[in-house]
Amino acid sequence: MITGAIKSQVDQIWNAFWSGGISNPMEVIEQMTYLLFIKRLDELQTVKEKKAARTGKTIESPIFNPYQAHLRWSQFKLLGDASSLYTLIAEKVFPFIKTLGGEDGQSTYAAHMKDARFTIPTPALLAKVVDMLDAISMEDRDTKGDLYEYMLGKIASAGQNGQFRTPRHIIKLIVDMMAPRPGDTICDPACGTAGFLVAAAEYLDKHHRDEIYRDTESVNRFNHDTFHGFDFDSTMLRVGSMNMLLHGVENPAIENRDSLSEGHAAVEGQFSLILANPPFAGSLDYESCAKDLQQIVKTKKTELLFLALFLRLLKTGGRAAVIVPDGVLFGSSKAHKELRRMLVEEHKLEGIVSMPSGVFRPYAGVSTAILIFTKTNSGGTDNVWFYDMQADGYSLDDKRNLLAAEKHECNNLPDILARWQKRDGEAARERTEQSFQVPKAEIAGNDYDLSINRYKQVVYKQVEHDSPQKILAELKALEVEILQGMEELEGMLP
């Protein structure tokens, strides 16, 4: 976990940007991203040099040649003159980043960095930020990742078209429930800052480290072929790419792609696991949307189109865990009903976790759910597992203060994971409990309504009230007491 000291250092850097004339949170993130990227390149070069020295071989795929040593973080940070530092980074280091290519001639990072702009306005601010970043120890992989997540958490306003960050603890819950495997090809078609892909990488590193680092082929697969992300926001692509790099994934396939457009309709059946929180708001013109998605579900609503997209992108047998607004579960339009029918009848709908409306505050107050299904093209739904999440470990107001995580009434997430992992034994649970199973036939009989409120039984506690006679007697006694008090006060007056 990131320490209070490092948080304080990041806060100081943030304040330095603010007072230095950059107040847009995304611009601050971008500029810090570029500097962290430059610092990371120097670290990677140092690792290559140490390996070469240890093996007695030449440096494998060096990032910097001997004539570019002055472009390395460890060298230019020693410059005492702020103006010289500014000129070097703006005119030499930054252009150098844009020319970098991977082993295939073009890395994901370089592709997204081509459009990058260096906007730190003054030499004094740059020198100050370089010194501050250099003072933060980022040798530990987890520290780098946590530091970056903390920075991303400072983006306090929602984007347009329903885009906002998914809380990291919700992402971790979803990834833990899906338990990615080393053979998975993982995709987030609306990846933003790549939070789901980062969490999946962390899960694989923690639970399957020996397998993913078993040999060169396994390492290459992890770094190049496992993770795929799409987004059409160039800023998000740069931030997401850096987020993956700082979490140890060298070259994920993060692409500039409008997932719903006709131009990318040919991409299908490629992924074994989809993790996503697609945009909720907005609608598209029929003309701009992929025709094959319109064939699956005739609608303009982006949340329904994304569900159709997930079914198209998944391999047969592929799994998905995605966040949807509650309206998807009970909407009465023809498109809503048809999509739910397809999930239940033509594929295997496995689970629905209903989340309280405060989970996405302060960005939005919409109620949401986690939808979990497997693409089969041949049915397979027997029972659907429901869970009524009532607490996620944080207050459900705009402040989102951390609560006592070990108490179930404050944090349901450990219970959700435990019950999900043993869901085959949940059939005997009553509908009054937080989790239970509902047979497919009952769901079909309810017009494929997937709202938990349709199936959960509410127990009303009997409350006994005092009789009216007793209440009146108590009121009379209070009046007598009040009158006595008033008489005593009157007696004290001169």
UniProtKB/TrEMBL annotation:
Sequence ranges assigned to domain DNA methylase adenine-specific in this UniProt record: 140-458
Source taxon at top rank: Bacteria
MF GO annotations: DNA binding; N-methyltransferase activity; site-specific DNA-methyltransferase (adenine-specific) activity
Alphabetical list of Pfam families matching this protein: HsdM_N, N6_Mtase
Entry keywords, A to Z: Methyltransferase, Restriction system, S-adenosyl-L-methionine, Transferase
Reaction equations catalysed: a 2'-deoxyadenosine in DNA + S-adenosyl-L-methionine = an N(6)-methyl-2'-deoxyadenosine in DNA + S-adenosyl-L-homocysteine + H(+)
SUPFAM superfamilies reported for this sequence: S-adenosyl-L-methionine-dependent methyltransferases (SSF53335)
UniProt cross-references to Gene3D superfamilies, sorted A to Z: 1.20.1260.30, Vaccinia Virus protein VP39 (3.40.50.150)
Any single biological process term in GO: methylation
Positions of the N6 adenine-specific DNA methyltransferase N-terminal domain: 6-132
EC number: 2.1.1.72
PANTHER family hit by this protein: SLR6095 PROTEIN, TYPE I RESTRICTION ENZYME MJAVIII METHYLASE SUBUNIT
Homology family: Belongs to the N(4)/N(6)-methyltransferase family.
The name this protein goes by in its record: site-specific DNA-methyltransferase (adenine-specific)
Organism for this UniProt entry: Pseudomonas iranensis
